[in-house]
Amino acid sequence: MSEPLLSLSGVNTYYGESHILHDLGFDLRKGEVVGILGRNGVGKTTTLQSILGIPAPRSGEIRFRGETISGLPTHDIVSRGVGWVPQGHRIFPTLTVVENIELAAARSRPGSWTAERIYEAFPRLHTRRDARGGSLSGGEQQMLAIARALVQNPELFLMDEPSEGLSPLIVQEIGALIKRLNAEGNTILLVEQNLAFALSISHRILIMAKGAIVYSGKPDDIRDDPDITHRFLGVGTAAAD
Amino acid sequence: MTVADVIVQRRSKPFVALRLWSVLALMIAAFAAAPFLGMPQFVQALVIEILVFSLLALSLNVLLGYTGLVSFGHAAFFGIAGYAIGIIAIHISTDILVTFPLAVLVAALCAVPIGWLSIRLSGFYFLMITFAFAQMVFVAAFRWKPVTGGSDGMIVPGATLFGAPILGSRESFYFFVLAVFTVCAALLYAIVVSRFGRTLVGIRESTPRMRALGYNVRRYKLAAFVVGATFGGVAGVLNSLFNLFIAPESAHWTQSALVLVMVLIGGAGYFVGPIIGATIVLLLQHWLSSYTEYWGLVLGILFIVLITGAREGIAGLVMQGWNHLRGKGP
């Protein structure tokens, strides 16, 4: 079997003195959609940020496309093809939609996505191209955040709670978009609190607790065994709403 | 929350300055015509001073308003260029084609190592390290007597062009400063609305996000620092050529603080904010100081009122009023 696109092994990340990730390790193969689930504060976001080097892990190794990226500056990691869609659909609020896209496009890798194709794929962003990021609706901001990552033509998308704070209809739309990105060959690692959403779009689910992976399985396994969500997420159906 | 965060949060509309920009162009035309319409010499001197400090405040705003870096040592570059032009004029040549660019270059070159070290820190620590560097410049000017004249200051020889003295009259210097200011303000405007300027705004709004978009944030911060220092250096050169004298106080921390106050009073979120701030502070200083020696008290009260009541400064108040008149809400 070929080398995974992304692999983490023995990763330990700290914020100041607090030890967040404990010998974290997992692999991601090209073309996979993998969802990381877990309660608040178990290190899901930190996992994504460690891959980006904000902050860099104190020990352990992160490899991307066969090369060690842990310890490299963030901009260097990103330029190798890692795209970040931050939590809370954080765009640049005082810049317009066009300016947000341009900022990202100025650092893009060669690939099929251009600003023009972005506007074709996201007509709503085109309609609102001169609006300031901060004046967009939550769903529009999330689309802009995804579009901004997309225009850089990354090989791997890191998405931090793309469904957070969005209405069910918009969540469906975002889900369809992620599936479409995946169908085009993109690899996606996403962190989610919305269990149903994560199960519906992921090929594989990782559950984290206390900074380590405690469960790995297929969405069907989790659907068939409610005990798993009880044990690891401490929720029954609440998170599945 | 750091000082930078507080200032940054005050801003929401950075580029609405377009209309104000055309007003500014009209004002420059009016100022160019004024001496022909009998503008008295002392008013010309006041306008020169306002233009010099407006340029200094504009250059600081590249860091403060656009990049979100609160420098407490911007006067260092004002002072470095101010001394450099004097030293070059004394020892090398008084030709303005040599002294002016060389002095600005000295300020820009000094900004590279100072900026390189300073931008590694952020927030309060950035403020303190820039303050420390500026104090080093001040102490050098104060103590390095053989070169700088120490506390007595330094007489700066008048400028020449191909051997002939120029800018000797108040009026000719007035036009010279107006022209240099216009060119520099236009260049700064072009810089802040360029892609580079938007990158700086992105850094101000979220440094981690810019890193995650693949930007080498430090390189951009350093570039902003050097750009600010370069235009601050131009202001320093103009100041020295105008007074034909430079003293260590030019690089003193109170000078850095005054420029910071100018930017904040005028409105760091707006391109013209620093110009408004510099104008108001200097007018207050001139008018009030003839009535009371406590003019600083009035400035202090104005600063407190604005910083608590109108965080976007006077430019922000004007814009709010303008939008209100046009029925665009608050």
Specify the helix fraction band of chain B: over 70%
> CATH H level of the largest domain in chain A: which superfamily?
P-loop containing nucleotide triphosphate hydrolases
How do the strands of the widest beta sheet of chain A line up side by side?
Answer: 6-7-8-3-9-10
Number of strands of chain A: 10
Percent range for helical residues of chain A?
A: 25-40%
Averaged pLDDT of chain A, please?
A: 90
State the low-pLDDT regions of chain B, or none.
Answer: 1-16
Beta content of chain B comes to under 5%
Low-confidence stretches of chain A: 237-241
Shape of chain A: globular
Q: Structural class of the secondary elements of chain B?
A: mainly alpha
Labels describing this entry:
heterodimer; A: 241 residues; alpha/beta; Rossmann fold; 4-stranded antiparallel sheet; 10 helices; 10 strands; disordered C terminus; B: mainly alpha; ABC transporter involved in vitamin B12 uptake, BtuC; 73% helix; disordered N terminus
How does this model look, in words?
The complex is a heterodimer of chains A (241) and B (330). Chain A has 241 residues and is of the alpha/beta class. Chain A has 2 domains: 6-81 and 155-240, Rossmann fold; 90-153, no CATH class. Chain A has 10 helices and 10 strands. Chain A has a 6-stranded mixed sheet, sandwiched between helices. The model of chain A is unreliable at 237-241 (pLDDT under 50). Chain B has 330 residues and is mainly alpha-helical. Chain B has a single domain (3-325), classed as ABC transporter involved in vitamin B12 uptake, BtuC, CATH 1.10.3470. Chain B is 73% helix and 2% strand. Chain B has helices at 3-9, 18-33, 41-67, 75-91, 96-118, 124-143, 145-148, 170-193, 195-205, 207-212, 217-243, 253-266, 273-289, 295-309, 313-325, and strands at residues 154-155, 160-161, 164-165, 245-246. Chain B has a two-stranded antiparallel sheet with strand order 1-4. Mean pLDDT of chain B is 90; it is low at 1-16.
